[in-house]
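Propose amino acids for all 193 sites.
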C-alpha cells in the first residue's frame, strides 16, 4: 500500500518538483506563492482580469506567510523526495546540491517579491501579471529558465514589466544558476557511467 505524502507547502501547491531531475523554476515558485496566498489572484486572475483593489502591504503579508510556509516545510519535503527518488536515495552529493538549490531558489524568490513590493504599486502588480502572461503565452519560457543572454519573452511596453522581468529572470552567477549547473554536471557524470 502506498504511503500518504506529507502535507507540506510544496505538496499542496503542486510544484513540478516530483518530476526530478526537472526542478521548479523561480517563475513557477513565485507564481505558486501568489496563488497560494490568493487563489483568485492578488492583482490579476489567470485570465488577466483585474481583481479587487487591495493594499500592497496586505498582499505582501500574505505572500510572506506563504514563503515562510515553503521555507518551514522544505526540510520535510526534501527528506521525502530523497527517500522516494531512487537516484537520490544514496547520493549524498546530489542531496546536498539539491538542498542548496531549493534554499537558493527560496531566497531569490523572497528577494524578488520583497524588492517588487518595495517599489511602486504598478511594479508589484506587474510581477504577478507577467507571471500569468508567461504561463499563458509560452510554456517553454514558463517551465525553463532561459540562459542569461538568450532572447526573452516579448513584453508589452510598460515600465513595470521591465522591472518585474529583471527580478524574475535568473542572473548569471546567481546561487540558483550555480546549483543548477552543479546538478546538470552530476547528471551528465551519472549518464556517462
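Proposal:
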Amino acid at each position: 500500500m502506498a504511503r500518504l505524502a506529507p502535507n507540506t507547502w510544496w505538496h499542496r501547491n503542486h510544484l513540478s518538483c516530483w518530476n526530478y531531475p526537472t526542478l521548479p523554476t523561480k517563475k513557477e515558485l513565485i507564481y505558486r506563492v501568489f496563488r497560494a496566498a490568493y487563489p483568485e489572484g492578488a492583482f490579476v486572475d489567470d485570465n488577466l482580469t483585474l481583481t479587487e483593489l487591495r493594499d500592497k502591504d496586505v498582499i505582501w503579508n500574505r505572500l510572506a506567510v506563504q514563503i515562510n510556509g515553503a521555507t518551514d516545510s522544505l526540510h520535510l519535503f526534501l527528506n521525502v523526495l530523497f527517500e522516494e527518488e531512487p537516484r537520490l536515495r544514496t547520493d549524498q552529493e546530489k542531496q546536498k546540491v539539491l538542498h542548496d538549490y531549493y534554499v537558493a531558489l527560496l531566497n531569490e524568490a523572497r528577494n524578488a517579491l520583497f524588492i517588487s513590493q518595495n517599489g511602486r504599486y504598478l511594479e508589484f502588480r506587474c510581477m504577478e501579471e507577467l507571471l500569468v502572461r508567461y504561463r499563458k503565452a509560452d510554456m517553454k519560457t514558463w517551465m525553463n529558465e532561459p540562459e542569461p543572454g538568450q532572447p526573452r519573452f516579448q513584453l508589452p511596453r510598460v515600465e513595470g514589466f521591465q522591472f518585474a522581468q529583471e527580478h524574475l529572470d535568473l542572473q548569471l552567477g546567481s546561487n540558483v544558476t550555480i546549483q543548477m549547473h552543479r546538478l546538470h554536471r552530476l547528471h551528465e557524470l551519472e549518464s556517462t557511467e
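The chain has a mean pLDDT of 83. The two ends are 34 Å apart (CA to CA).
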